[in-house]
Amino acid sequence: MQRRKFIKNTLTGLTLPLIPPALISCEDTIVTPKDKTVIVIGAGIAGLAAAKKLTENGFDVKVLESQEKVGGRLRTNRSLGIAFDEGASWIHGVNKNPITTLAQESGMTTFETVDENRKSYDIGGKIRTAAIYNSAEDELDSIIGSMMKKGSPSESFETVFKRLYPQKFNDRLWRFFLSSYITFDLGDLDKLSSTLYDAGEEFGGAEKIATNGYDTIPNYLAKGLNIQLNERVTMIDYSAEKIKITHNSTITEADYVIVTVPLGVLKNNVIQFLPNLPQNKQNAIQKIGMNCVNKFLLTWDKAFWDDVQYISYTPEERDKFNYFVNIKKFNPATNALMTFAYANYARQTESMSDAQIINEIMKHLRDMYGSNTPNPTNLLRTKWQSNPNTYGSYSFTAVGTEMQHFDDLAATLNNRVFFAGEHTEIDYFSTAHGAYLSGIREADKIIDL
Ligand SMILES: Cc1cc2nc3c(=O)[nH]c(=O)nc-3n(C[C@H](O)[C@H](O)[C@H](O)COP(=O)(O)OP(=O)(O)OC[C@H]3O[C@@H](n4cnc5c(N)ncnc54)[C@H](O)[C@@H]3O)c2cc1C
């Protein structure tokens, strides 16, 4: 409830004014924020949002980032002359979404995507009628709206769905829905909670896809901030009054630390905390799930596919290159498709060669568009699971997750070690806007001190 109130305040611009508040020390001398040092770990959107707000409020802020550039999971590859967003692509619901404002301020251009602008193929290149697709989709909506009542905390979405709808579970169109609607958004079907899969809030309004690169936003937020790149943090010692942060072979001291590294990084114990993190935080790190979604961009000299925004294909195997975004719709000079792999199949793709990936994708495209369909001229791909800066794509409510765990991840240690990042945002976890709001939330906590 309190968090909702915070978000409401943030969205209506009622957060604290940007006037640096004076801090009163125990000795009654005035201490300005400038005397307080803050280290922000991670230059993703959460870390940058916090660093910008604290810097604007007069704090002495330094950001330590393990990679060669800012943005984290808002990362754009322009090596082919077009913007391939390796992480987030969409603004999910533009109404009152802080990313909408940030897009306008930063110059990120967008294109409204419409789910119904699509064509669906079954195996053998058979076109599925819109009537069949739409009525199954309506049924899915109603199942999603009610299935949690029939689930239990110890059962996965897959277990409960299979029990209730065995025929649908084996139907190719339904397998596609389970994959590209549920697993893509929410996590591994066999690990996803059957009672909490629907948790969280959403913004209303259109879905918009970034067209000139989502990294436009982090690049804008990073302007003027003190950011040290290629600095991997390995230890946070908060046992004494000054916090000691070990990064590469250096130790930096600070009054406050904001940890924004992804849940996957916390799960893999990349950072050692001294003293150890409290048991409830360790438990939350273990219980909340980390999904894996990989993205693939393919280009050709000439387009051979349908002139629609989305092309879906319903193979026997779930989670495998079943959904194609037609990049040409918003980038007419480019003949490119973007496709996806989810969950365990996504993890498997990371050990496949480019030739193997192309071969598997082309099997699907040739089944739809004919055996003479040419191989692509280029492939760009992601490997989010083995990426040591993330170890996965985004958090989800796994079996064993309780909503309290998100608040446990967000909880502050000794009023000095703070935590932000999408996985700490109880209402909007797993999204770019959730990550942004979490950074503002933690900056406000420090300002309020
Ligand atoms: C494939 C994919 C698709 C997505 N699609 C969408 C979408 O369409 N819409 C949407 O709203 N959201 C989407 N998301 C989610 C969104 O991208 C994330 O929720 C958001 O970007 C997370 O921001 P963050 O600041 O919490 O974490 P990050 O962006 O991951 O930032 C954390 C930073 O910490 C750094 N770091 C890690 N370890 C260390 C260390 N030891 N020391 C120092 N620095 C470290 C990392 O390099 C990174 O820069 C998607 C994500 C992925 C992966």
Question: What can you see in these coordinates?
Answer:
The protein has about 450 residues and is of the alpha/beta class. It folds into two domains: about 200 residues, FAD/NAD(P)-binding domain (3-Layer(bba) Sandwich); about 180 residues, Polyamine Oxidase, Chain A, domain 2, CATH 3.90.660.10. Helix content is about 30%, strand content about 20%. A hairpin with a 2-residue loop joins strand 14 and strand 15. Flavin-adenine dinucleotide binds next to helix 2, strand 19 and helix 14.
Secondary structure: elements and pairs:
Blueprint: H1 2-11, E1 23-24, E2 30-31, E3 37-41, H2 45-56, E4 60-64, E5 76-77, E6 84-85, E7 90-91, H3 98-106, E8 110-113, E9 118-122, E10 127-128, H4 130-146, H5 157-164, H6 166-169, H7 172-186, E11 207-210, H8 216-222, E12 227-228, E13 233-237, E14 243-247, E15 250-254, E16 256-259, H9 263-267, E17 272-274, H10 279-287, E18 289-290, E19 293-299, E20 310-314, E21 320-326, E22 336-342, H11 343-349, H12 354-369, E23 378-381, E24 395-396, H13 404-410, E25 417-419, H14 432-448
Parallel strand pairs: 3-4, 3-16, 4-12, 9-20, 13-17, 16-25
Antiparallel strand pairs: 1-2, 5-6, 7-11, 8-11, 9-10, 13-14, 14-15, 18-24, 19-22, 19-23, 20-21, 21-22
Bound molecules: flavin-adenine dinucleotide (FAD).
Notable characteristics:
21% strand; binds flavin-adenine dinucleotide; Polyamine Oxidase, Chain A, domain 2; 449 residues; alpha/beta; 14 helices; 32% helix
